[in-house]
Specification:
The protein contains six helices and ten strands; from the N terminus they run H-H-E-E-E-E-H-E-E-H-E-E-H-H-E-E. The chain is of the alpha+beta class. Strands 1, 3, 4, 6, 7 and 8 form a six-stranded mixed β-sheet that branches. The protein is globular. The protein starts with a helix and ends with a strand.
């Protein structure tokens, strides 16, 4: 577990109980999460491709009064515990959890694309001391404007666009993690 993230969660909770300033801890939490070298995302069972063992991030409406939400984990063990609890695995031995590194387009791409696709919330660390984070607040705290989004194109996609095709805008596929036997 990332000690700083857990500490900020506790500060938010305590400030909420005391009627204090929870926003400061909330903003610091959002910055700390975005500054991680990598985060783990729950992946969609419906989008899973067994040939490439990839999927797209899961967007769920089961929490936050039906608001579309990404399920994000700051810790690999917590992600795997969530996956095991919900049996969020494939028939071919992959856990529907994927790691996205912060380098390059990585996390920036996932979060800005989520904003474009109408995601409103981040469910951070469900299964532990979870926190609901507004995606709009998250992007603002991290000085990220989804209107400035850069989309990575494969050579095949670029050729298709040159021939008059329409762009296929959506999440980049993420490799599902192989389960240990």
């Amino acid at each position: 577990m990332n000690q700083r993230i857990e500490e900020l969660k506790r500060e938010m909770e305590q400030a909420g109980k005391d009627g204090g300033d929870w926003r400061s801890a909330y903003e610091l939490l959002m910055k700390e999460v975005y500054g991680q070298p990598a985060l783990y995302f729950a992946l969609s069972r419906n989008e899973y491709d067994p040939v490439t063992a990839t999927s797209k991030p899961l967007v769920s409406t089961k929490d936050f009064n039906g608001q579309p939400s990404l399920y994000v984990f700051s810790d690999g063990d917590l992600a795997f515990n969530w996956m095991n609890h919900y049996r969020h695995v494939t028939d071919d031995g992959h856990g529907l959890i994927g790691m996205v590194e912060n380098a390059g387009y990585g996390l920036y791409g996932v979060f800005t694309m989520a904003a474009h696709l109408g995601v409103q919330m981040i469910m951070l660390d469900e299964g532990g001391d979870y926190v609901g984070i507004s995606l709009k607040d998250f992007l603002k705290a991290n000085e990220t404007d989804p209107r400035d989004m850069t989309v990575m194109l494969s050579q095949e996609e670029l050729e298709r666009l040159k021939q008059g095709g329409q762009p296929d805008v959506g999440f980049t596929r993420i490799r599902a993690m192989k389960l240990k036997l």
